[in-house]
Amino acid sequence: RAGYFAFLAVLAVLLFTLASCGGTAAPASSTPTSSPASHYPLTVTDDRGKSVTLASPPSRVVSLAPSATEIVFALGAGDRLVATDDFSDFPAEAKALPKLGGIRTSPEKIVALKPDLVLAISSGNLPAQLDALGQPLFIFDPNDLDGVYKNIVAVGNLVDQAPRAQQIVADMRSRIGAIAEKAKQAKTKPRVLHEVDSTDPTRIFVAGPRNFIDSMIAICGGSNVAADAATKFPTFSAEQIVARAPEIIVLADYRFGATPDMVRARPGWSAIPAVREGAIYPIDDDLVSRPGPRLVLGFEAYAKIVHPELFGQP
Asked: Which domain covers residue 55, as residue numbers?
């Protein structure tokens, strides 16, 4: 399990949650509209600053990140996916695709599929190996919400679905913008701890700065207690968490065993305001850890947790 959360951390990413404030549906799908293929050959720059050039619209796409898989399906190009990583499980059609592994994936398996586009995250040695093998690679590593929008647009351009990508981003901007505006009415700015992995309760992975979860907390009207950390997903000791006195604790590791009762039972945590007030909330980690179209649902769920007086009960 710890390896899985490390994977999520990189997506941030740590590796990037649900009732919606403005409707429970994810960004609505529509019949994709292809732009003229005359804009190929096409060159797009990824989050590493490296360029990938496609001579024509790709027909054999490999996705090595759940967020990338969700983006491709949302763009109406899921039929072009020939394989994904083991964690890609949304939408339902993604589960039926051939799987290439989880944290560790063999570059030879990828090359054997003869992909004309590989979508991945900046994890481990795999990107360098694929570059060395001459694979058409686009890497995701968004630091914030704008980075997520940029990635959706980039993939839309790569798979010849630019209009649909712009539609998805416009919908996300509208719904998240509405949350930001409403959150300005709040009279408080509660301190929030976003727990990512408590496998070792003496070294808990939390969401730090420079990632879209930090952006989510801020936009929803909260204050991230780990915003001053040195890394995107730092580990905090129990003593550090108690000292930062979060008023809200969000359990992104709920699906993997962490529960409000377990948090309440942790030694010394009874002094934490969130524990005293019962403000411990599970959240669907897929909606807050995968930087793709469903991230808007994570924002809508988070808004209810941070300011239920404005957005309704979580």
From this structure: 34-160
In single-letter form, the type of residue at position 151 comes to N
CATH code for the domain of 216: 3.40.50.1980
Averaged over 219-243, what is the pLDDT? Answer: 96
What is the end-to-end Cα distance of the chain in Å, rounded? Answer: 27
Residues 129 and 215 grouped into a single domain: no
Which residues does residue 248 pair with via DSSP β-bridges, in sequence order? 192
Q: What is the pTM of this model?
A: 0.84
pLDDT in tens, 119-130: 998 877 788 999
Residue 7's nearest CA partner among 85, 76, 84 is 85
Does the residue 198 lie in any domain? yes
Neighbours of 310 (CB within 10 A): 18
Tokens 């924002």 belong to 299
Q: Give the HSE-up count for residue 248: Cα atoms under 13 Å, Cβ half-sphere.
A: 25
Q: Same structural domain for residues 153 and 220?
A: no
Band of the pLDDT at 165, cuts 50, 70, 90?
very high
Please indicate, yes or no, if residue 153 is contained in any of the structural domains.
yes
Best CA proximity match to 121, nearest among 265, 14, 211: 14
CB 80 within 8 A of CB 59: yes
Task: State the virtual CA torsion across 154, 48, 104, 124 in degrees, nearest 10.
Answer: -170
